[in-house]
Write a structure and sequence with these properties.
It contains twelve helices and twelve strands. It is of the alpha/beta class. The strands form three sheets. Strands 4-12-5-11-10-3-9-6 form an eight-stranded mixed sheet, with helices on both faces. Helix 5 packs parallel to helix 9, helix 8 packs antiparallel against helix 9 and helix 9 packs parallel to helix 11. The N and C termini lie far apart (about 45 Å). The relative contact order is 0.21.
């Protein structure tokens, strides 16, 4: 006699396989043994982590909430209103090592990205920083997923890196070891193929592209058989998941066709949307799919490289990102830069709202995620690294509460926050980076 009554039970790690395609499934009721509490099964909530980097700082008086305690969204943060109950703003954090130490000191952009998730000193004249918290998490909670982590960016790799600095400091926020920076991928098409497969070799990939078929077509017979075994609620959930995949494929194909038609404007790579917002939404949607199917639980994303002159017309500002940050502390120009900050937060809201709308076990993906968003710079005009614009979103599988504005003592290392988040996500450590103690969050 068994200890519990079973349904038709699927393993949590169930895949549909076709030629060159391995499609992971989202969490379904059929993966949970009947009359067994979810927390005691393999389908129990798993934490996800996303670290998001935005260079050039912020107009801090427009970013910082007016008072400590219950969160009242500031002007720059108002786009987060629908998810504010799961957002915590932490004020007075600092990244002093972004300015260097001793004879290596200097306020500039070069170290900002490398220090964001490491709290380490990126050395001038070499490529040496520190292990980043995403890679600590990938080692501890990412080893039972197909991809321990994914690293994403919006801009392509750049070679304008500052005198005496390795370009790795500008091009990634993820470091597996102090001397091993991880490349960031900015092509949604390549990210999609990495997540779901697109042929085992070049010939298969070319044949698939020429046939203009969806990867779902390659597993359609297996989907049909599986749906015939599922309860109605699982059939709906699986259909929604497959619809999301097909919609992302459609958007990638549309971007690819647009790039082919615009032969006189070759800047946009094939399969990458021209508009920043469209590109970013695709990257966010791909992360949601990856989390939902547990292809990975760990991701990082760079909105831009430091000193980027990207423009964001949808923000209402035509000036380039980096030039706009050099506002000379003139009030009108600081207010203009704040419009870019608010626009970036608006795009973050898209991601957080989509996580909240995606079921995951006894809750949703935002309930089970930790999203760390911000910059290693404060006032971009002065190139200072204190105080930083930083927020944390998500419930951390029940270990975090939101709707708060936490004000720390001046010059508190951001590593104190990262240490606290590592512990919340199941990595017990006494120190991280340049931490002095674990922040109470």
């Amino acid at each position: 006699m068994t200890a519990f009554i079973t349904k038709k039970h699927l393993p949590r790690r169930t895949f549909l396989r076709g030629v060159g395609v391995t499609l992971a499934l989202p969490l379904l009721d059929s993966m949970v043994p009947a009359q067994t509490p979810l927390a005691k099964t393999a389908a129990a909530a798993k934490s996800r982590f996303c670290g998001i980097y935005v260079p050039h700082g912020a107009t801090m008086d427009k970013w910082t909430p007016a008072q400590e305690g219950a969160l009242e969204l500031s002007e720059s943060l108002k786009p987060l209103v629908k998810v504010s109950d799961q957002v915590t703003v932490v004020t007075n954090l600092a990244h002093p090592l972004a300015a260097g130490v001793g004879s290596d000191a200097g306020a500039d952009h070069a170290r900002s990205a490398a220090v964001f998730l490491s709290g380490a000193h990126p050395e001038k004249g070499s490529v040496h920083a520190g292990v980043t918290m995403d890679q600590v998490l990938a080692e501890h909670i990412g080893q039972d997923t197909p991809l321990p982590s994914i690293e994403l960016s919006i801009e392509e790799v750049g070679v304008n890196c500052g005198v005496g600095y390795g370009c790795a400091y500008f091009n990634t926020i993820s470091w597996r070891t102090p001397t091993l920076p991880l490349p960031m991928e900015n092509s949604p098409q390549l990210v999609f193929e990495r997540l779901f497969g697109d042929g085992m070799n070049a010939a298969q990939r070319l044949a698939r592209k020429q046939s203009d078929r969806s990867i779902l077509d390659l597993v359609s017979d297996k989907v049909t058989r599986l749906q015939g075994t599922l309860d109605p609620s699982d059939r709906v959930r699986l259909s929604e998941y497959l619809d999301d995949i097909r919609e992302i494929e459609r958007r990638i194909k549309r971007a690819e066709d647009q790039a082919k038609n615009e032969v006189d404007i070759p800047e946009a790579p094939v399969g990458t949307p021209e508009a920043f917002e469209d590109h970013l939404k695709l990257m966010y949607d791909l992360q949601v799919l990856a989390y939902r199917a547990e292809i990975t639980r760990i991701s990082t994303l760079m909105y831009a490289r430091d000193t980027s002159s990207a423009t964001y017309p949808a923000s209402g500002v035509r000036e380039g990102f980096h030039p706009a940050s050099h506002h000379s502390n003139i009030r009108s120009r600081m207010d203009t830069f704040a419009l870019i900050n608010r626009y970036h937060v608006q795009t973050l809201a898209y991601f957080l709202e989509k996580l909240r709308a995606t079921p995951d076990g006894e809750g949703n993906l935002l309930d089970h995620s930790v999203v760390l968003y911000g910059s290693s710079m404060s006032n971009g005009n002065q190139h200072d690294h204190d105080p930083l614009p930083i927020l944390v979103a998500g419930g951390g599988a029940g270990k975090l509460k939101g709707g708060r504005h936490i004000v720390e003592p001046a010059h508190t290392p951001m590593s104190n926050l990262m240490l606290a988040l590592l512990n919340k996500l199941g990595v017990e450590r006494e120190t991280f980076g340049d931490s002095t103690k674990k922040l109470d969050i």
